[in-house]
Design a protein that fits this description.
- With about 260 residues, the protein is α/β, with parallel strands linked by helices.
- It folds into 2 domains: about 100 residues, no CATH class; about 120 residues, no CATH class.
- The protein is about 50% helix and about 15% strand.
- It has a 4-stranded mixed sheet with strand order 1-2-3-4. The chain has a 4-stranded mixed sheet with strand order 5-6-7-8.
- The longest helix is centred in the middle third of the chain and has 25 residues.
- The radius of gyration is 21 Å and the shape is globular.
């Protein structure tokens, strides 16, 4: 079986096309939460991924972080396993592999934290203090972090230079990560586009100041091996907002054309 035959077989079996991606196939507008994709690696990627063919997915078990769910030497083997997993009805596709990925992701995070503790013990202590403080405040129903506290924490960690924080900095110089509210009162981290049309691309959006500040602090100071931690609800929000981000770019193009006409 090759990928063309795999696609035909999945369609015959009635598998929702939002659940999977295949090499050379058109991307679907909206992916399912349990989406997995079969990837054929280029020569230079084989060493990084450990195989020519890999299955990637598992973001719903480690929100916002895909893992390798399978490695295969041949297209035939990869397609056979992919078809078996996507068409079986006794358990979710790649259930065991996703559970293993959740364990592996936590191991990688902990190794990263141990590396910070060895290289920057003061930063590790601050991260541990904030983790405890976030839990305490969340349990008490208090805002977990403010922009003023984020400003102080980033300065103490010597990570402040790349951030432009609302009410504290000039947000319009086109450099760094912008921390601000949108016109709906939501909090976001974004960056200015480096080419026309120029506007701030919202990379992450949260409903509260505390959620965003916690994310930014984790992103700025956390292990390089792993992305910042997201809750399942936060990850789902980012997924839901993808069409909005695409529409925002379209509006920026329209405004630029009107201004230049």
């Amino acid at each position: 079986m090759n990928t063309g035959e795999l696609l035909a077989a999945l369609r015959r079996a009635g598998v929702d096309e939002r659940r999977y991606g295949l090499p050379g196939s058109a991307a679907v507008p909206s992916r399912a939460e349990d989406h997995v994709r079969l990837k054929r690696n280029a020569d230079w990627e084989v060493a990084e991924y450990g195989a020519r063919w890999v299955v990637v997915g598992g973001e719903e078990v480690v929100p916002g972080w895909e893992g390798i769910l399978g490695r295969f030497a041949t297209e035939e083997e990869a397609c056979e396993v992919f078809h078996r997993e996507l068409t079986r009805t006794t358990a979710p596709a790649f259930a065991a592999e996703k559970a293993a990925w959740a364990v592996e992701a936590e191991r990688v995070r902990q190794e990263g934290e141990a590396e910070i503790a060895a290289d920057e013990p003061e930063l590790a202590a601050d991260r541990a203090w904030w983790a405890g403080e976030w839990r305490r405040r969340a349990e008490a129903g208090e805002p977990v972090m403010t922009c003023a506290e984020l400003d102080h924490a980033l300065r103490k960690a010597d990570r402040r230079a790349r951030y432009r924080i609302t009410d504290l900095d000039d947000l319009g110089d086109g450099e760094g990560t912008v921390i601000d509210r949108d016109d709906r009162g939501r909090w976001y981290a974004g960056h200015w586009r480096t080419e026309a049309p120029y506007y701030v691309v919202k990379e992450m959006i949260f409903f509260t100041e505390g959620e965003l500040c916690r994310y930014v602090y984790d992103d700025a100071t956390g292990p390089w091996q792993a992305p910042p931690v997201l809750t399942l609800e936060q990850w789902r929000l980012q997924r839901a907002l993808r069409p909005e981000r695409e529409a925002e770019l379209d509006r920026a193009w329209d405004e630029m054309r009107r201004d230049n006409s």
